Amino acid sequence: MVALTSDRNAPERVGDLRAGLVAANVRIFAGALLMRTADGYLTPGATATGAIGAGRANIAADNRGGAASAIGVDWRKGDFRFENSAATDLITIANIGKLCFIVDDCTVAKTDDSASRASAGVVEDVDGIGVWVRMDEALTRALA
After folding, report:
1. What are the b/e assignments for 30-54, b being 16+ CB within 10 Å?
2. What is the pTM of this model?
């Protein structure tokens, strides 16, 4: 490519809605916490390494029996409330502004459980129902 010599209409993405390719042999429920695997596919949150929190599934996607990238899923980045872990991994208001970690597709925890959990995102708030998590891959990667 060469540098511009005239005006250019550079496409943009407005808002937080995204679409992505789904990993092989997974089922994603609408509202699930999503993580991006090391090879770039979206999968429901689970205790795993080599992945990172991406966002929340907008729709369900069933790729059980399918190859990676056989289907896509609509998802959003943003602030979402997920279930809080328990006992020593319970997230409190003292954790606001810190990373939290993926337990499963609806639960986050305070620790990475000796490096066995991927980063979910940043704790935005904690209430009586759960933990509000800022899901933004770029931010989470920068802090992880």
Report:
1. eebbbbbbeeebbbbbeeeeebbbb
2. 0.91
Exposure string for 79-110, b = 16+ CB within 10 A, e = fewer: bbbbbbbeeebebeeebeeebbbbbbbbbbbb
**Structural contact between residues 133 and 121, judged by C-beta atoms closer than 8 angstroms:** yes
Q: How many domains does the chain have?
A: 1
Q: Mean of the pLDDT values across residues 89-98?
A: 98
Give the tens place of pLDDT for each residue, 24-70: 999 999 999 999 999 999 999 999 999 999 999 999 999 999 999 99
Q: Is residue 86, in this structure, part of any structural domain at all?
A: yes
